[in-house]
Write a structure and sequence with these properties.
The protein has strands at about 1-5, 10-15, 20-25, 30-40, 50, 60-70, 75-80, 85-90, 95-100. It has one domain. The strands form two sheets. Strands 1, 2, 3, 4, 5, 6 and 9 form a seven-stranded antiparallel beta sheet that branches. Strands 7-8 form a two-stranded antiparallel sheet. It is mostly beta strands and about 100 residues long. The radius of gyration is 19 Å and the shape is elongated.
Length: about 100
């Protein structure tokens, strides 16, 4: 079974047992969180439910596995002929979720 959930301003296509990195959530590791499903489908595509905006009666539950930071990216700014150069690094915080149940 597959579902589409929304968190952190983004939509994610998830299935049961999947591990997913999302924007950082203020929850402790081991806590459970519930999302409203926007779309629910069987794995073979036989039954598809589309919500307006959410499918009624369907929740996606997930367990917080850990928090962390993504790999460092380098943000470089450069303007020619004016001796302007800036190099700044950034590591985006994330929360790792494990999808436990869809339904």
């Amino acid at each position: 079974m597959y579902a589409v959930i929304t968190t952190g301003g983004k939509q994610y296509f998830v299935h049961q047992g999947e591990k997913l990195q999302v924007e950082k959530l203020e929850l402790e590791p081991g806590a459970t969180i519930s999302f409203d499903a926007m779309l629910v489908a069987e794995s073979d595509g036989s039954k598809v439910q589309v919500g307006t905006p959410f499918v009624s009666g369907v929740k996606v539950t997930a367990k917080v596995v850990e928090h962390g930071k993504a790999d460092k990216i380098s943000v470089i700014k450069y303007k020619p002929k004016v001796r302007y150069r800036r190099n700044v690094g950034h590591r985006q915080p994330f929360t790792l979720l494990e999808i436990e149940k869809i339904g």
